[in-house]
Structure formats: C-alpha cells, structure tokens
Specification:
Elements: H1 49-58, E1 66-74, E2 79-89, E3 92-97, E4 100-105, E5 108-113, E6 118-120, H2 140-151, E7 158-164, E8 167-174, E9 181-186, E10 191-195, E11 199-207
Antiparallel strand pairs: 1-2, 1-11, 2-3, 3-4, 4-5, 5-6, 7-8, 8-9, 9-10, 10-11
Length: about 240
Amino acid sequence: MDNRRAPHTRLRGHPLIGGALLVLFVFAGSGCLTGSRPTLAEVTATGNADVDDVLSRIGQLSTARYSAHYDVLLRYGDITTPVSASQSDGDRRSLTIGDIRYVVHGQVTKTCVMSTAECVPRIDPTRVSDVQMTPDFFGTSLIARIELDVSRAGGQPTVTSEEIQGQQATCVAIPVADGATTYCVLDNGVLARLDAPDLAVTMTGYSSDVDETLYAEGTTTTTAAVESTPPTTAG
C-alpha cells in the first residue's frame, strides 16, 4: 500500500471481532500480535470511485447491528470453514471461526474454544492461523486486501449490484493477474460475498437481529459448586 496517498476518509472504529487472511491477505497494523485489539476499519482513497464507495461502506461497519453466517473456502487445499459474525453494539462484537470464538465488549476481550468453553482474556490470532484467518476478517484486513488488489489491478474495476440473503449488496470486481476478485458489501458495511482466485466467502444466513448465542463462551458452562443435601432413601 502506498502510504503517500492523501487520506480520503479515515474511520477508526472500536476493536473488531468481526471481520481476512493472515497469510493470503497482505495488510499492515491490523492487530496481528497476540493480545492486541484489532481495529474495525481504517479507510483511505484508492483513486477509483467505485472501489472507494465499497471501502466507505466497510468503514461504516461499527454502526451495523446484525448476525451473519458464512462458509469460507480456501481453494488451495479445498478447506471450508464455517464462520459466524455478530455485532450488537458499537463495542460488542463476536466472530466465530470454526471452533474458535473471539468476543469483544468494551475493554473486555476473549478468545474461546467453543468445544471446551476454555477462554483466555485476550485476542489470540494464532488460534485460527491453521485456517489462515484473522480476528479482523471483515474490517481492517478486508480493506487492506481491496487496496492491494487495486494497486496491482490489470484493468478498471467494474461495479454491479446483487441480492444476497434478501439484502441488496454493492459489488466491485477488480481484475488482477491471476483472475478477478469480486467483493460484495451491504449498505451497512457487512461483507456479503467475496470471490477470489485463492478463496471464496459465501454468506449462508443474515439477520438484522442479534443472535445472543454467538456471544456464549462455549458448549460447556462452568458454574460455582453448591452444597446440596443427598436424597433420602426409603428403607
């Protein structure tokens, strides 16, 4: 990314749990060190009005209230990972990647293993590095990927619109050397579809309601021990 470009709009949100790839996505300063708090979205101008329109939508993600579900396919290895994202307030977000769940609520951050309900009080990106994803999948890293594609585009991006899961999405296709990459984003900044030579993100469900189950720490609940009276037996 050329840092000499003048900023178009810089929208810094609260830490993201919601929305790119650690290895396949190239980005800078997006909170990839263990325990850091990734930013939601930081937008700069690319010089292409259609692309900048999509970027500006992503920059508004902090105001979205939603729950969304995806299948993320890594084409190299044919690996599909279920992903769920939700945002109930500007400072309360959840992102579940396979068995790992990231939760942010104000100053509280957690990385949880859903199958065991074991959590650590920080955002740990290494827990999803095996599927080459990050805790800022839909925000900072997504913006960085778009900007990278524009910088190496072999032609002019084209814009279209699609209906995805009953929602209207604006899509921009950016031609790159190994094939075009298409990004579709809803008006509120939520990623609706991504189709690239290396991966595909397919939205499988969407709601403007918040799914509180996406904020649970796992399938096992730990409760404080209580003293109980043994049952009386007849005899």
